């Protein structure tokens, strides 16, 4: 599947959900978390488990010692993010939002203008605040406390509608030159504005961000089949699942919705920072460092974004 087809498939899914959502019953946030957390773990998180592909291409680790050193460094960065959240949840939340916006801005393909990328990445942060500020505040409160959550939402909410308008204008302006990219931006903006925040984020994270990264990884590395990528991701995913189980056990005593919210979003933040340290090095150079099995540069690796 090409990135164009994947983007159109995501857009169709987003608009389909928005079309049928008016007939769906309202579900409490706690139930949403219980239903969506496994979806994020199974369909969203695995794209980060493919970081070993990029490390292998960039460093050519061969020895067990080299891979052990990488694993220790990766886990140390992830652990430092968790410690940051534990010691200073308010600043952690702001960091998580900024890092997420920057990371998601890499989704559009091709020679995408910086402003377009900024509006795309920021949509994940600002759009849910247009119609669902109370629900966002509830989620933020479970991560950083009521006071910090209220302050952060108040600081961001004033820009929510202007951001939506700017995203719409940018999509329309680019429609003639890059129609698929414009459709993607409109779909992301509409989904995250009108859908409940957790549901909108899950659809975006799994069907757009994660799926797109898997497709890029497949071409970048000349990996061949998706089954091969699944085999590569199996080990890191088992380690992630073990970490989730340990974190769940250690968080006993908290309300279910708080435990789930912390597990999902603190866990994502902990994995996103080392993931970015690996992947952004490749993305910002245009996805051109992919090598095939013989070590030569993959020409297909240059077809994606900068």
Structure notes:
- The protein is mostly helical.
- It has one domain (29-297).
- It has helices at residues 3-20, 29-44, 51-59, 64-87, 89-104, 114-126, 128-131, 133-144, 146-157, 160-174, 179-194, 197-221, 226-250, 256-283.
- Helix 1 runs parallel beside helix 11 (179-194), helix 8 (133-144) crosses helix 9 (146-157) and helix 10 (160-174) packs antiparallel against helix 11 (179-194).
- The protein is globular and about 50 Å long.
Describe how the helices and strands are arranged:
Blueprint: H1 3-20, H2 29-44, H3 51-59, H4 64-87, H5 89-104, H6 114-126, H7 128-131, H8 133-144, H9 146-157, H10 160-174, H11 179-194, H12 197-221, H13 226-250, H14 256-283
Report the span from N to C terminus: 20 Å
How much β-strand is present in the residues?
under 5%
Q: Return Rg in Å.
A: 19 Å
Unreliable sequence segments: 290-306
Whole-number total of structural domains: 1
- Tell me the number of strands: 0
SSE string = HHHHHHHHHHHHHH
Shape: globular
Mean pLDDT: 83
Total DSSP helices: 14
**Main sheet properties:** none
Structural class: mainly alpha
Q: What level of helicity do the residues show?
A: over 70%
Protein traits:
disordered C terminus; mainly alpha; 14 helices; 306 residues
Task: Give a quick rundown of the structure.
The chain has 306 residues and is mostly helical. The protein has helices at 3-20, 29-44, 51-59, 64-87, 89-104, 114-126, 128-131, 133-144, 146-157, 160-174, 179-194, 197-221, 226-250, 256-283.
């Amino acid at each position: 599947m090409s990135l164009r087809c994947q983007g159109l498939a995501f857009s169709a899914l987003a608009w389909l959900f928005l079309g049928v959502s008016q007939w769906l019953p309202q579900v409490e946030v706690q139930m949403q978390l219980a239903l969506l957390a496994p979806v994020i773990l199974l369909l969203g998180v695995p794209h980060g488990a493919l970081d070993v592909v990029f490390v292998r291409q960039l460093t050519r680790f061969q020895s067990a010692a080299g891979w052990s050193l990488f694993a220790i460094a990766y886990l140390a960065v992830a652990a430092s993010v968790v410690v940051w959240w534990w010691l200073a949840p308010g600043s952690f939340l702001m960091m998580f939002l900024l890092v997420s916006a920057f990371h998601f801005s890499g989704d559009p393909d091709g020679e995408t203008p910086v402003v377009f990328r900024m509006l795309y990445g920021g949509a994940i942060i600002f759009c849910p605040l247009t119609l669902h500020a109370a629900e966002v505040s509830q989620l933020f409160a479970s991560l950083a406390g009521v006071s910090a959550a209220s302050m952060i939402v108040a600081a961001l909410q004033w820009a929510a509608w202007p951001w939506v308008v700017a995203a719409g204008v940018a999509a329309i302006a680019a429609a003639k030159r890059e129609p698929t990219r414009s459709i993607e931006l409109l779909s992301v903006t509409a989904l995250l504005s009108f859908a409940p925040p957790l549901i909108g984020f899950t659809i975006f994270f799994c069907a757009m961000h994660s799926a797109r990264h898997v497709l890029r990884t497949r071409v970048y590395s000349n990996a061949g089949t998706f089954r091969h990528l699944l085999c590569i991701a199996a080990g890191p995913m088992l380690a992630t699942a073990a970490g989730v189980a340990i974190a769940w056990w250690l968080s006993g005593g908290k309300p279910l919705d708080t435990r789930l919210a912390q597990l999902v979003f603190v866990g994502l933040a902990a994995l996103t920072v080392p993931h970015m340290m690996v992947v952004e090095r490749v993305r910002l150079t245009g996805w051109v460092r992919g090598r095939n099995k013989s070590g030569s540069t993959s020409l297909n690796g240059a077809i994606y974004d900068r």
